[in-house]
Amino acid sequence: MSKARQLAKGQPCMIGIAGTCNGDPETTVFARYPMDVYFDIEMSSDDELGAWACSACNAVLVRRPPILEEFFLQLRLFHAEGVLRTQHAIREMDR
Ligand SMILES: [Zn+2]
Q1: CA of 68 to the centre of ligand 1 (A)
Q2: Sign of CA dihedral 41, 47, 50, 53
Q3: Which Gene3D superfamilies did the record assign (predicted)?
Q4: In terms of Cα–Cα distance, which of 6, 7, 3, 12 is closest to 53?
Q5: Cα(52) to centroid of ligand 1, in Å?
Q6: Residue 1 Cα, ligand 1 centroid: separation in angstroms?
Q7: Most buried residue, 11, 41, 51, 84, by CB count within 10 Å?
Q8: How many angstroms separate the alpha carbon of residue 16 from the centre of ligand 1?
Q9: How far is the CA of 25 from the centre of ligand 1 (A)?
């Protein structure tokens, strides 16, 4: 199990969708970034590629289309940036 997944519970939400995020670290889960869905790339270690997401943000992320394509791309960006913030937070813990 990756460190990102192991440490998820109790961490701040790294997605932060305005008007959606509940900001409650107790609901935080590891939200895997689905490279296989978005890019048809199988990742052997995709357990590491994910973001800490509160239950509310995660619910939006896992809701697949049908939604407007424009919003879908925006969600992908939120998710990808969440992955970067999560990895940054983990690196900071190790310092
Ligand atoms: Zn959130």
Answers
A1: 21
A2: positive
A3: prophage-derive protein ybcO (3.30.50.20)
A4: 12
A5: 8
A6: 22
A7: 51
A8: 4
A9: 9
Q: Packing angle between helix 55-62 and helix 69-94, nearest 10 degrees?
A: 130
H helices present in the chain, as ranges: 3-6, 35-39, 55-62, 69-94
Q: What is the mean pLDDT of residues 19-30?
A: 97
| pLDDT tens sequence across 47-84 | 789 999 999 999 998 875 556 677 888 899 999 999 99
Whole-number percent of the chain with pLDDT over 70: 89
Q: Which residues pair with 32 in a beta bridge?
A: 50
Homologous superfamily of the 3-94 domain (CATH):
prophage-derive protein ybcO (3.30.50.20)
Kindly state the tokens that stand for 6.
Answer: 């192991």
